[in-house]
Amino acid sequence: MFEKIVNILVELTENSVSPEDISRDTKLVSDLDLTSLDVVNAVVMFEDEFDVQIPDDKIADLETVGDIEEYLKDLIG
Amino acid sequence: MKNKDYPLYDTLRQITDLKDMVNSHAVELADKPAFSWNEGKEVKTKTFADFKNDTEAFGTWLYSKKYKDVHIAVVGENSYEWVVAFMSAANGGDVAVALDKELPDDKLKELVEQGECSIVFASGKNFKSLAGENKQEENAAVCTEVSIGGKIVDVYNLEDVEDFIATGKTLLSGGNTDYKDYKIDPGKMAALFFTSGTTGKSKGVMLSQKNMAADINAACKNFLLEGETTLAPLPFHHAFGLITAVFMVFNYGKLVFINRSLKQIQRELKQVKPDMMFLVPLFVETFYKLIRQTVRKKKKEKVLSVASGVSNMLLAVGIDKRNDIFREVREGLGGNLSVIISGGAHLDEKYVKAFRTFGIDILCGYGITECAPVLSVNRNHYFCDGSVGLPLKGCEVKIADDGEIIARGDNVMMGYYKDKESTDAVFEDGWFKTGDLGRINENGFLFITGRKKNLVILSNGENVSPEEIEDRLLRHEEIAEIIVSGENGQLIAEIFPAEGHMGDQAFFDSLIDKENEKQPQYKKIRKVILRDTEFEKNSTKKIIRYKKDQA
From CA B324, how far away is CA B317, in angstroms rounded? Predict the structure, then answer.
């Protein structure tokens, strides 16, 4: 799962970040330089990839790559 | 697209206020769709007549609850109910207070208190945070009394608006016409929008019906809304997102498709196929990224680059083949999008040029909440790249002696709510001082050159706008970020170099030397400081200028 998340994020940064630079502590906005809309797009891509629904209210809580992985794991169960 | 001066559009009747707009459209465009949105798998639609009936019914319910002459806050994600609540309050002599749904709980409560709101309509997490977790859904359509700042505030769920409309309709059919008969006082405060207040306390911008009507009337003269459909993703608590992107579109008699969640925007672009959109630069930049991603996925980068060249060459000789050549690119944005009005912040010219290549015209404008909000916009067939367009007719815009853009007209706010000191500070001889610096060229186009508070006053008394110099220097790709400021009465530049140029002091000294040669003495940069870390930025990715020395 971690790898898939990383691949989606790398695509969103237009390959300006390489996968090995992303860890669970990597912050989406301050480290990957994603805008708030990029994060929304990332969420849409996670929803498609993992076939889950992430509520809008939850998006602001997803600060790090680790947050995403943990949340998706909870959703998938 | 021709680019020359032409008469203002004069096809619409001048509205006196928002109630006049709603009522007249309900007659002239009765069965035409005014609002649509996705609800689950269903598309809901309300006509112009529905909207009048719903606002009247909701207002009648408000009056029946003795919510008359009070301040009514609305907060939550974009929705039809949001617009009904706001419009009903504004058109019944109440004050509609627009609040940002992203505010932290304590700040939200602070603004409810500052805006002296007696009632709040909130949805989603905002409702939960105001009314408390246990109060929702159990018993629909009830009011929760909450103490905010020592005052009891009635909190309602925006999702229950439909129930209140139903009650209002029953009251109306029973002959209760108090709300319907209310006569608008054009000069009375009807709406309160809060400035973002990133550097201090938020200020409540008081707008009257006259202010909003004046701006809608004037903007409709500069700009023609072609096509039938718009998609509205900008948050409604912003004057641009509401007065311009919703009310002005309504005034044109066109459909506003309400984007209720940004997650849906890509899907809705394809579903709704908007003809035009009102956006802030962040959206334009994201759309551009989406286009590039699509192109990259299909491995057609080279094709796109060649096609752009060919298309621009054809366009130069008057042959417009953009629709055919870039059909696939445009389809990612629905396929019909031909005009984007961009406002709210500076948009880099490169996006304007790139989108034009694809056949989508971006018309940049300029506005400020205090001016309800539009002050200028590029016209459909008369525009100047790099400018924010022509000032609206009926709204005077000029450049003061110190370079500040100042405005006067019916669209200029009444003042800041219960803040005489701040109000006095922004008005001088009847002119509103925007705080932005600009110039107007020989054809009347307005250019923004910086913020007045960032002005550097040099030892020789010259005033220099650092943003103007920064914009020029940022064209060098070796410079990733730059801040120009004053030190001991002289200009200095602090640069965060692009990759491959870190720490190369000699290179940047020579680059700045060359740039200095083209500048008058007082605009020459005397010292270059290189950084090895980026500048600290705020949530909208703007460099926090005053922190530049602390990193």
Answer: 17
**Mean pLDDT, residues B402-426 taken together:** 95
Measuring CA to CA, which residue among B546, B474, B541 is closest to residue B511? Answer: B474
Is the per-residue pLDDT at B1 higher than 70?
Answer: no
Contacts of A52 in chain B (CB under 8 A): none
Please give the span between the terminal C-alpha atoms of chain A, in angstroms, as a whole number: 13
Give the gyration radius of chain B's Cα atoms.
25
Domain that holds residue A7: 2-76
Tokens 């186009």, residue located: B445
For chain A, how many structural domains are there in total?
A: 1
pLDDT in tens, B95-113: 999 999 988 888 899 999 9
Strand extents, DSSP E, B33-81: 33-39, 42-47, 71-75
A57 → closest Cβ in B125, B292, B293: B125
Q: What is the CATH classification number for the domain harbouring A51?
A: 1.10.1200.10
CA pair distance B367, B387, nearest whole angstrom: 13
What whole-number distance in Å separates Cα of residue A3 and Cα of residue A50? Answer: 13
Q: What per-residue confidence (pLDDT) applies to B161?
A: 95
For chain A, say whether B261 makes contact (Cβ under 8 Å). yes
The ipTM, to two decimals, is 0.76
Which spans in B277-318 are helix H? 281-297, 301-316
- Going along chain B from its start, the domains and CATH numbers come out as 46-183 (3.40.50.980), 246-444 (3.40.50.12780), 455-547 (3.30.300.30)
Of residues B261, B265, B286, nearest to A35 (C-beta): B286
- pLDDT tens digits along B389-407: 999 998 999 999 989 999 9
Task: State the pLDDT confidence band at B198, using cuts at 50, 70 and 90.
Answer: very low
